[in-house]
Write a structure and sequence with these properties.
Elements lengths: L3 H32 L3 H16 L3 H43 L1 H25 L6 H17 L4 H13 L4 H18 L3 H17 L4 H9 L5 H14 L11 H6 L4 H4 L7 H10 L6 H6 L4 H19 L4 H24 L2 H35 L2 H30 L5 H18 L3 H39 L9
Helix pairs in contact: 4-5, 4-6, 4-16, 5-7, 5-16, 6-7, 6-8, 7-8, 7-13, 7-15, 8-9, 10-13
Amino acid sequence: MASVDDRVVSIKFDNDSFQRKIAETISSLDKLKSSMDFSGARRGLEEMGAAGKNFNLSGVTSAVEGVSAKFLAMSTVAITALVNITSQAIQAGARIASAFTIKPVIEGFHEYETQLNSVQTILANTASKGTTLEEVNGALQRLNEYSDQTIYNFGEMARNIGTFTAAGVDLDTSVQSIKGIANLAAMSGSNSEQAATAMYQLSQAISAGSVKLMDWNSVVNAGMGGEAFKSALFETGKAMGSLTGVPVSQSFTEWEDAGNSFRESLEKGWITADVLTTTLAGFTGDLTKEMLLQKGFTDQQADNILKTAAIAKAAATEVKTFTQLVGTVKEAVGTGWADSFKIIVGNFEEAKGLWTMVNTTMGSIIKRSSDVRNMLLQAWKNEGGRGQLVESLIAAFDGLRSIITPIKEAFRDIFPPVTVQTLLGMSTAVLEFSKRIKIGGETADKLKSIFKGLFSIIEIGWNILKGLITVIKSFLSALSPAGSQLFT
């Protein structure tokens, strides 16, 4: 067993060893630290921190925001376009619905009334020829059926047939002429308004007896004075003998090449009413070859007329555009409603009887009401009511005058009426005042001295004020450096 001294020596020995080992460990750690240099890592971290601070996504953010704004603008434009398209579609749908629902009913009623008015006009113009109501209705019905098959409307035809009959043309010839003009207009590419103009102008030419240059100019302006119409008139004039001195075998082109002028030849009046109506009837396609031969045409002329008529009728009845389709359908629908009104309200005689009865009934009611009212007013007048009313108005004006008169007199007492003398006195006073404004030389010198002294006093006072400010500023500057700042 070791003694106490041995244990103490042993502990000291162990402590020295322990300290030595610790020193070795620390030395080893220092070498390890020196070999592992973290200064570069620290700089790397610092550089990463600086780079992180400099790292900026503002450009990307701006780009994203710009794209977002553009998408928003595009969406706004798209929404606006869709809204406009929807609005236009709704409006177009409403127009289409109106064109095939309400509007045809209204147009049908107008067509019905136009037909009734045309019946009255045609009857008045053809009664001397023995035309009956049934014949007039039949003629208008033929025109109505024809208008449903073509791009032209019945209303214009019905109005213009009245002008033809008024020019002395019989009913059947008028119907044929109207149809012929419509077919010719279609073949020439003229619209319904131009055809109506030509119908009216040619009816006036018929009334005058022949087609003159002025009438022909109107046809040309309507787009219908082309080669086909001139050639047809030329051939008809030859066949009917109104165009003299022309061989039957000579064509219109050969005739013009020979030095003849169609426009100048019109002054001879060879396009008579018969020549015109016969030519127009040839464009209808309703005439047969036998009928044309009976009118004096040759076989070749008849064949040419039938060929031209077929082209003209096809041009009028064949629908080539959507607009023409809509117009034709609307005309057919309008005609159907016109027939409905004709059934409900009645034909010419029935409608005349109906509305005459309504007018008589309503007229009698209105007349009785008017009679009762007028009898009452007459009794009131006879009993002096009117005189009392007049007197009350006069009394009211007198009372108003009695109020205004003293006010007027009081005003005149203070402000007398302006007379010539008053105006002269005012102008004289103004003149005297203007003369007195001017001052003399002595007064001017005195005035100058006064203001000179006044301005001198003002100058002295200003100099004193500036000196006082300078003294105060110097005093404050002596007291404190900050005092000088008050006047800087």
